[in-house]
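Exercise 7.
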Amino acid sequence: MHYKELAILFVILIFFITLSLMVGEISLNIIDIKNAFIGKGEFIKKNILWNLRLPRTLLALLVGGNLAIAGSILQSYFHNPLAEPHIIGISAGSALGATIYFIFSGGTWEIDPLITPWISILGAFIVLFILILWNRKSLYNSSLILLGVSLNALLSSLISFLLFKNQKIFQGVYFWILGGFNGKGWQHLKILFTYSLISLPWAYLWRKRFNLLNLTEEEAYSLGLSIRKYQKYFLILISLLIAPSVSVSGIIGFIGLIAPHIMRLWKTSDFQWLIPSSFLFGGILLLLSDILARTVLYPAEIPIGIITSFLGVPFFIFLLRKEE
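Solution. The predicted structure, written as tokens, is:
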């Protein structure tokens, strides 16, 4: 285990967590944050820290970490470095499920936040199932990405059509789909944290199995892993990592692409390193994106999905060229 490198990532993460707590319409300094944590200082600053910035910051960290780990597993499972929740349509599947639920409920997220993740998981599960079936029959690895991109476009179009037909909830759902943490609080964090309590320890405990996913199915079987036997569990785990995150934050792309690749380039593809390091770096990336979303066009806030796309598309093109 590369403890020194993980310690470096942890220090960087603490820096961005602190910065995230400080930045906003009313700036907080280190003394304000310390006082708010120990129950001292001005009421308004304590209120801002505890009810707005702290849950938002922790939510960004958790979503970023979940998406980064999901990306690292997907890339090994499909033997494709370009596989990522957003690019291959899994996030869009989750978003479509949540959108349908919003429409039937007659409103947006605040209707019943406990049900939304389950509908999102169902959407992600269906897309993953289609991708796995395709991957088994296809002779060309690149066709998986083409199918994923096509599914992403199709599902996004379906979401747009549904919103067009249901103008009453258009604005609320539209801004949710673009991705972001504005207006999210402890309730959203508690829901995502509950799912993460299952998915994150599960991903870490299976780190040795994920290393075998880089082999062929026959090679993995000879070393004791039947990929067909475990396939349904991989489906469930990946869905648990992606769908609850999408249900609270909307569609946030490319974190699952950038974070694991940079961690692989930095040290190794061993999941013993990749799981914790991708989680930390994914959290750092999303915290940085959230801070930029809040400050670039201040006082307006940009949807965070726009920021991550600006960061991720050049990286995707770089990987695509490298693959060629």
